[in-house]
Design goal:
The protein is built from one helix and no strands. It is mainly α.
Length: 124
């Protein structure tokens, strides 16, 4: 009976030690679980921030592309205006050259008439 009681006491002590150890492990598991939940929360927050940043960058990129498109259209329109002005100036230059040639012919004709008049006047 004494041996059984001694063994029972020993088993009771081992059970108490096992319960204490299990309790400590449960506390560590709970702390690790809380830490894991905290990390999951931080991870989710980081993912949301990255997604928001990506959306912002996408919007900025779209806005930049739109701006570039508008600027490109402005440049194309300016090039059209420049080409039109260039064509107009070339046309005016051509017309001016033609007029200059006409005036030179007229001047030459008048010069000949003047010379003829001088010759006639010298004869008299």
């Amino acid at each position: 009976l004494e041996a059984i009681k001694s063994e029972n006491d020993m088993l009771t002590q081992q059970l108490a030690a096992a319960r204490k150890h299990n309790s400590e492990l449960a506390g560590k598991i709970e702390a690790a679980t809380e830490k894991m939940h905290g990390m999951e929360t931080e991870y989710a927050k980081s993912v949301r921030e990255l997604e928001a940043g990506l959306e912002t960058q996408t919007a900025l990129s779209k806005s930049y592309e739109d701006s570039l498109g508008i600027e490109r259209k402005k440049i194309i329109n300016q090039q059209k205006v420049i080409r039109t002005m260039e064509a107009k100036l070339k046309s005016e230059a051509k017309a001016s050259t033609v007029r200059e040639m006409e005036l030179k012919k007229e001047l030459s004709k008048l010069s000949e008439e003047l010379q003829a008049a001088k010759s006639q006047s010298e004869e008299y």
